[in-house]
Amino acid sequence: MAEQRSRKPRRNTKPESDPPPRSQPVCPVGFCPVGMALTFGEQVRPEVVEHLLAAGRELLLAMKAVVDARAEAFERSSPLERITIE
Length: 86
Prior knowledge:
Structural class: mainly alpha
Number of helices: 2
Helix content: 40-55%
Strand content: under 5%
Shape: elongated
Radius of gyration: 31 Å
Distance between the termini: 113 Å
């Protein structure tokens, strides 16, 4: 009869504490804007991200100013009049 050899379980040569390298985004949804932005943000320098955030903030402030100005103009030309009842 053939002898059975006792086999030792193979050990992984890689340490378990190292995470696997990420080459693709984690988001499972194709063309997800958040996943695409995060993937893009990982690949650029921090100065570029700061510049884009500042530009976005300025754009939102400009849009807010336009909306506020239009709301003021709308309130002034309103055909409704407040009547107090005594």
